[in-house]
TrEMBL record:
GO terms for molecular function: hydrolase activity. This is Alpha/beta fold hydrolase. Residues 21-255 form the AB hydrolase-1 domain. One of its GO terms (cellular component) is membrane. Pfam families: Abhydrolase_1. Signal peptide: none annotated. SUPFAM superfamilies: alpha/beta-Hydrolases. Keywords: Hydrolase.
Length: 275
């Protein structure tokens, strides 16, 4: 891996292969290794970039006491500039999909395309009245849980609450994928877990109707219904959007159904770069 120095920390990333750029941004409390099936598929034909977002993986803790999706998008912009990547295809999962949406809002036609797996626009995935979020914030309870039980147990409690509303194995249908995801969560400190959660919760999505970037949204069959609904809204909002649902998969759709996800992504990537 290589590193990019920031004013308030160091961002770790990995670059493989040559050709047109594909940039992958992982989900919350995971790391760049979450994209391994895609790196193995695309590195022979493209320049594949993965990064560890602040608070995650080798990047780990950075100075700010509070994170935001906007800050993560700043880091993405810095990395694209450092590597001189023009017209990349940006691939984001969950939290990473928010980062890509923020980038597209700022740069409506700068990316050649966007692939959003497990795409979510806000947390919770329902519209709350303006100004209401601070008054119903779960952050105080989350902080208490983190101090008493730690990140892994806190994350398991979050999964149980989601499953109670969906009745499905939301995160992943694959025990090995779930186990690997839990291992990644266990490597994150209590404070960084809190900061990442705060970034997710506070994010207010923008209207993306001005976005011209071709966008593919991919959800697993067992994704939370409200998240799927947000994905369909996103596709309808951008000027060129497509929605795909893959059976036998959950939120980590790129790992539950790697072959199907890669096939759909390859078709999308080839079409975008051909255009």
């Amino acid at each position: 891996m290589a590193e990019l120095s920031l004013e308030d920390g160091t961002l770790w990333y990995d670059a493989r292969g040559d050709g047109r750029p594909l940039v992958f941004i992982h989900g919350g409390w995971m790391n760049g290794q979450a994209w391994r099936p895609q790196v193995e598929r695309f590195a022979d034909d493209y320049r594949v970039i993965t990064l560890d977002v602040r608070g995650h993986g080798k990047t780990g803790a950075t100075e700010p006491n509070q994170y935001s999706i906007e800050l993560f998008a700043d880091d993405l912009e810095a990395l694209l500039s450092e590597l001189d990547l023009e017209e990349p295809i940006l691939c984001g999962l969950s939290l990473g999909s928010m980062v890509v949406q923020e980038y597209m809002d700022r740069h409506p036609d700068a990316a050649a395309g966007a692939i959003l797996g497990g795409a979510v626009r806000s947390m919770p995935p329902v519209e709350l009245p303006p100004g209401m979020k601070p008054f119903v914030s779960p952050l105080p309870a989350l902080t208490t849980s983190l101090s008493l039980t730690g990140p892994e147990t806190t994350f398991r409690s979050m999964l149980l609450s989601i499953r109670a509303t969906t009745g499905e194995r939301w995160l992943s249908v694959n025990p090995e994928v779930r186990s690997t995801a839990m291992d990644a969560v266990g490597e994150i400190s209590r404070d960084e877990f809190r900061k990442v959660f705060g970034a997710l919760y506070r994010y207010e999505p923008s209207d993306l109707s001005h976005v011209e970037t071709p966008t593919l949204v991919v959800h697993g069959e067992q994704e939370a219904p409200l998240v799927k609904q947000q994905g369909r809204q996103l596709v309808a909002e951008v000027s060129d959007g497509e929605h795909l649902e893959l059976s036998g998969s959950g939120h980590l759709v790129n790992q539950d159904r790697p072959d199907a996800f890669n096939t759909a992504s390859a078709t999308f990537v080839e079409d975008r770069y051909a255009a």
